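EI: anyone free to look at a 385-residue chain?
SC: sure, send it
EI:
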Amino acid sequence: MPVLEKGAEMKDKIKKIYKSKIFSLVFVILFVAVCFGIGASIAYIQHESDPTEIVVSYFRAFVQGDYEKMYQCLYKEDNDYIDKKLYMEKMEKLRSGYIIDSYDIGKVQEKDGRDCIVVKCKDAASEKTKEFVVYVESKHDNSIFIPTYYVDISDMLVTALKVTIPDGDTLQLNETNAEKYADIETKDSSKIISFNRILVGSYKISATNNTYALNKSISIKKDNISVDMQKMTPTANSKYEKLINSTNDKIVSQFYKAVRNRNPKKKELLNIFSKKNTKKQIQKMVKESQDIVYPPDDKYSSSYKVRSMKIYDEKNTISYDKNKKQYKSVLKYSYDYTSSNDTSLASSYIYSVSGTCNSTMTIVYTANKDKMTIVDIKIKNKDKK
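SC: here you go
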C-alpha cells in the first residue's frame, strides 16, 4: 500500500478515537482527577495555613503549667535573646492570675495590625471571663506555599541592646552564654555585642574569662540601651565564686565551733589553712572572739558555756586584684549569743552574758586551677552587750 494511503488511514482512525465515548470518558476522568487534586491541595494549604493549631498548643501548655512547651512555640528573629528561665518565670506568674474552669478559643482576627486569637477563660465560681490574647507570626521554613506559625510576644520585647566588653571575654546574661544570639563586632581592645530584641526583665550581665568576671545588674525595660562593662571592678568568675563561697562556709562553721568550745587549735579548722601564718592568724582570731562570748574576768567564767549562737545577715563581696592575682572576700554578718554558767553545790545562781556582735571577716585567696589557697585572714568585731 502506498505511503500516502497509509497516512490517510491512520488519520481516520485517530478521528474515530477522538469521537468515541471511551475518549470522552477518559478525558472526563482525567479532568475530575486534576480538579480534585487542585481542590485537595488548596484545602490542605488552607488547613496548614491556619494558626489555630499553634494557639491551641500554646494555650493548653499555659493551662497545664508546661512553660517549657510554651517557650518552644515562640517566634524568634535573628539576634533575638529570649531568656528561657526569665520567660518561664513570667508565664508562671501570669498563670497564677487565671482561674480557668472552661475556655472558648476564638477565630483569627486582626488587632493592632497583627493577627491574633482571643481565648476567653471562664471562672465558674465567679462567672467572670478573662481574655488570653495570643498573637501569631508566620514564616516559610520548609515550603514557599505553607507557612509555619509561631506565637509572637513582641509586646514583651524591647529593641537594640548593646553591650561592650573587653575583647577576649565572653558575655553572659543571667549566667547563660548569650553571644550566639547577637551580632558581634571587635574594635581595638573592645568587643561590641548587639541584640536585635531582648525580653523585658532583670539581668545579671557578666563579661567573664578563665580568671575573673565583670558583673552588672540591670533592669531592661526600654529600647536602645547601651552598657559598657570595661570599667567595672573585677570579681571572681562563677567557677571561683563557688569555690570561695564553699571555703568561706567551712571557715565560718568551724571557726565558731572552735569559739564555742574554746579550742583555737581545733583540727577541722586548722586543716582548711595550708600556710603557717594563716594558721596562727586564725588561732588568734578564735581567742579574740572567745573574749566576746565569754566574760574574761568573771570567777565563774571557766564554767560558762555558749547556750545559743545564731548567725544572720550574711553578705559577701568578692573583688579581684589583677596585679596581685588575688581574690579578696569581705564577709559581713551578725550573730546573737547567750552564755551562762552551770549551777553547782556552792552556788545555785546562774550567771549569764548575752549580746549581739557585728563582724567583718576578710579572706584573701590565690587560685591554682581548682585549688584555692588562703594567704591572709582578718576579723573585725563590734560587740554590743
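EI: Residues 52-152 form a domain with the Nuclear Transport Factor 2; Chain: A, fold (CATH 3.10.450.50).
SC: 👍
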